Amino acid sequence: MQILTFVFIVAVIASTIICVWLTQRQINAVRTHRDAVPEPFRDSITLADHQKAADYSLARAQLSQIDTWLGTILLLIVTLGGGINWLDQYSQRFGLPELWRGIAVIALLMLFMGAIDLPLAWIRTFRIEAKFGFNRMTAGTFIADLLKGILVFVVLGLPLLWVILKLMQTAGTRWWIYAWLIWVAFSLFITWAWPIFIAPLFNKFTILKDETLAQRIGQLLSRCNFKSAGVFVMDGSARSTHGNAYFTGFGRNKRIVFFDTLIARLTPSEIEAVLAHELGHYSLHHIRKRLLFSMLMGLIAFAVLGLLAQWTGFYTALGVDAPSTHAALLLFMLASGPFLFFITPLSSAWSRKHEFEADTFASQHANAKELISGLVKLYRDNASTLTPDELHSRFYDSHPPALERIRFLLQLSSKTIATA
After folding, report:
1. What is the pLDDT of residues 182-201, one digit of tens each?
2. Distance from the Cα of residue 91 to its chain's centroid
3. Nearby residues of 357 by Cβ (< 8 Å), 6 or more positions away
4. Could you tell me which residues come within 8 angstroms of residue 342 by beta carbon, excluding any fewer than 6 positions away?
5. Rounded to a whole number, what is the largest CA-CA distance in the chain?
6. What is the residue extent of each domain of the chain?
7. Which stretches within 33-81 are classed as H helix?
8. FRET pair for 319, CA 20 to 30 Å: which of 72, 76, 179, 400?
């Protein structure tokens, strides 16, 4: 057994065991606290709502366990089990040029893995989400979204894949630098184009019509020196009752988007506070920092791939007999997952730090108590667990746990009152 094979197997087993263990901790924590609402929420969240959130979290966690085991088995089958190798050898029968054969192999493997995941996605949507009253998606919409996603991949993803494989074959040993530059340009283009050309394929976006709320938001944007292409309402209710708000695009295409479900549930002052939090991410350059970090990680990834693609042992260690550019790309994308799993806590901690900073910004430009009341409504209406396992949360969660976040906002509120 090659050393890389051994290291890969250890990484796969270790990441799977840790993932399953953490999820089981989450299940145990939610079950243990199911019958008591945490003290700070007892006046705003009923026991019935708390138990619904617990049961919803348990259902999702149990499905996640299945997803983890299935993903591990599938990963081993397509790599060490010879799946990629078989598909690569089988594709040679059709006499396609290497470049197009590589695209076909990658596309077919992606479709196969997506098809394997499809039953879980169906269960998640039409069993779990439906059982707890969140799903509004029909089977027709589900299938239409799936086909639209495939269409987007064909129109945008395949040309990018063609360029990268072409560079790997013809641009010499420094191909990875050019490929990284193309990937960066593509990522920026997608970020710019998403709100105008891609997102409308899946949802309807309309200008916010509530003039009073629009005026209030306009005043907040002015205070925060933020300019956008508009404030839009998305028909999230067509697919789910979950509520949310987000920024999208950059430059002149920056948009503020509210789910219609959020507009229906929160008061204008709560919406203002939630938006102030989102504006904090922009004003504090969190989005820019994450984009730059993504670019740096991409550069490192392409550099490592550039080295591995020249090493014959990389292919044989992971179940592929004959080196090729598409096999290198596929193996790297698949095999890197178990290794990147171990930096998840660092990414989560960085994200939670940004959330606290955005909350501080929101308390300076809106009312912290209104943000608290808005968040509590979202926790309740989205059935977010109030009692996660601490270690599971530290490892995975991009947002602070509800109890920790509310306490932090209460401190900010107290400081604001004391200063006034």
Report:
1. 999 999 999 888 888 999 99
2. 33
3. 280, 284, 286
4. 15
5. 77
6. 1-136+202-284+311-420
7. 47-78
8. 179
Q: Is pLDDT above 80 for 3?
A: yes
CA 419 to mean position of chain CA atoms: 38
Structure tokens at 239: 């697919």
Give residue for tokens 């085991």. 69
Q: How far is CA 32 from the centre of its chain?
A: 28
pLDDT on residue 224: 85
pLDDT at position 339 is 96
Say whether pLDDT at 110 is over 90: yes
Rounded CA separation 108/112 (Å): 6
Sequence-ordered alpha helix ranges (H) in 156-207:
158-170, 175-193
Q: Which residues make Cβ contacts (< 8 Å) with residue 63, sequence separation at least 6? A: 120, 123, 124, 128
Phi-psi region of 251 (alpha: psi -120 to 50; beta: other; left: phi over 0): left
pTM: 0.92
Residue 256: is its pLDDT beyond 80? Answer: yes
